[in-house]
Homoserine dehydrogenase
Amino acid sequence: MIEYRNLKIAILGAGSVGAQVASLLLEHGEELANRVGAGLEVVGIAVRDLDAPRTAEIPRELLATDARSLILGADIVIEVMGGIEPAREYLELALTSGADVITANKALLATHGPELFAIAEQVGAQLYYEAAVGGAIPIIRPLRDSLAGDRVHRILGIVNGTTNYILDRMDRDGDTLEQALAAATELGYAEADPTADIDGFDAAQKAAILASLAFHTTVAVDGVHREGIRTVTRDQVVAAQRSGFVVKLLAVCERLVDPETGRDGVSARVHPALIPAGHPLAAVHGANNAVFVEAEAAGSLMFYGAGAGGRQTASAVLGDLVSAARRHVVGGPGVAESTHADLPILPISSVSTRYQITLSVLDRPGVLAQIATLFSEHGVSVEAVQQSVVTVGGGEDEESAGATLVIGTHRATEKALAATVADLAGSPVVARVESVLRVEGL
Amino acid sequence: MIEYRNLKIAILGAGSVGAQVASLLLEHGEELANRVGAGLEVVGIAVRDLDAPRTAEIPRELLATDARSLILGADIVIEVMGGIEPAREYLELALTSGADVITANKALLATHGPELFAIAEQVGAQLYYEAAVGGAIPIIRPLRDSLAGDRVHRILGIVNGTTNYILDRMDRDGDTLEQALAAATELGYAEADPTADIDGFDAAQKAAILASLAFHTTVAVDGVHREGIRTVTRDQVVAAQRSGFVVKLLAVCERLVDPETGRDGVSARVHPALIPAGHPLAAVHGANNAVFVEAEAAGSLMFYGAGAGGRQTASAVLGDLVSAARRHVVGGPGVAESTHADLPILPISSVSTRYQITLSVLDRPGVLAQIATLFSEHGVSVEAVQQSVVTVGGGEDEESAGATLVIGTHRATEKALAATVADLAGSPVVARVESVLRVEGL
């Protein structure tokens, strides 16, 4: 066995990810040392409560409550505690003391990323965060390095496992949203308060990180338009199936031309969307994640895998740890964040996409013509209309109560569509605007 | 506009990849300079014939026939000429002169990789090869860096677009192998001599590269067991469909325990295999590639995209170029190849997997029992049997001519299976062993 010098590793947090990081590091220490050319010595694991139960076995003597001392004695700090404070303060301390930092903390990056990257660059330290998006799926490194010579046009990401599990159950098992959420909670996919997942906050943080990387532009989480899945109904999912679509909660990051200024800009948004059933993203089931990238030269790429889980996330953390440790061994600064493009962040109103609008209308002659006119007045071009007559009663007593129109549009701006929908809602021939869904991946 | 110092780039080859690399570099030069922090100046493109037709527009004054002078004046050399010589000699010259090298040349890496990596390490230069496997799909970097802290168990790769296109046509359009190959040739997916694709040579080179990376062990191409798709019939594809499978040409790289020694070893092999229809790899259609990775902590990951094409491959080359150029700007050595594990390469006889065996047998009582006994004598456990009676004649004249048995096995070694199949072929109740296919992804 070769003798190496040891790099000192501090771990902040011993929750489901931290405990797995520690346990894998202890288990595979020798193999990792051979890959790196240096030993990886865990000097301590900072926790709030020494006696809290852990999901993996950790030697008791490694646990410590004084995070600051641990940080100041470490070459590399792994932050897997989550939350904004004191994580932000600890990482600032680690970076200013010259340690490299590895974090899985998407909330922190999406809110305080730019200032942390700035500190890192100033002192020549590195900030790694492969685990912050897509769990074990390598997506940060491919975007930052592999596609660094290409130009990314669009990212469509299923980046929240909980909502994908819920929508998948609604699609494949016929669950209502409530039933699917209950199942997700029971399986531990959803937390007691599912707001972060269901309302798209988690996905929006990841969208901010992906858009920043892909477009070399700082995108903060408040620049991300956000709609969750609370309003998605079983009826919508069934109607989507019938027209050859699947409903997914997507993080969409797009480089587009601002219709106001004619100049390039960036849009990042999270919302439920219809995806064609034959699209690779439509086959992402359960709590899995996938990121679909469209680039100028590379064409379409997809990265797929488990988006969460302590052990899976730990894999991404350890990959970053090996990178950071190799840099310590061979010397030399790493790579700073690239935000040179600094494109404007465009509001949702600047986005153009396709839509599927479901209307309950009166069942009488001339209704379709009136509605079509209304679309064309706003410059929204209709691609397809499906009409079905809704009946009340049954057998021989049935009578027509109205009809349902499902209207698919060509590409239109959000602005034009919003104006169209407002007019539809006020039209005397429309009983109700049942649903408006964006269509992506066509 | 910021003024940067220029890095000198030499390109060897102006075929479909080289021409695209040059044209993208010239088109996006300023954007790439901003990402790198240095200008990327193409000092010349080495070609054999200055007047050959090109697939992209390249300024005539950049073309040169003296590759050696170009190489000696370059900071970074991009080799996209293909073939073994003179590519090997040129890369050796580039590395010994201290230039970093980027290559898309899988044949060269699979045969002379170890000596080139050794030279690079000696002089502190870097050898990048993201484009050698899976075209634009980032797979080298994820394996080398993102999964560096994890332990890869198995890779199942669709790494040859031509054969995937052919098998996909046989599966979805009902083509015979000959019809599908003709279509692939017409579309330019298959070359006039399709041997490298059809007989699995191309996939075997990629398997050698993937296995070396995943298992930190040098795997040469002659250590890869290789079977092509020439023997795959439309009947096999139809039978596979009926039992819920798709036939794919797979590159399988596996870490396994050598049954002879009880110690860990590596198997790399290329052969047609049955994949369950619900497996993510089964949905990889046309000429696309995908690499499915099973790792200890990360679980299952998949990387999907266009596996070939000049522009797609150029994207991977440019990603490597940005990495190499950043290293020149920030200084410091890069990362050497990691072959510390140095596991033994096991022959195909040490592999165990599942099989599906199709037999034509006599249609009389007791046949199934005899065949089942024969399997069990070799320790091969039968999981499922489907029997169908084949008739000759038609209408009222039909008579039973024999039966077809499709036998699925549990996991068994290649050795045991080969012995079983030899005995089946010699059995008086077996008219013919119709096909033996491995089953992966279960």
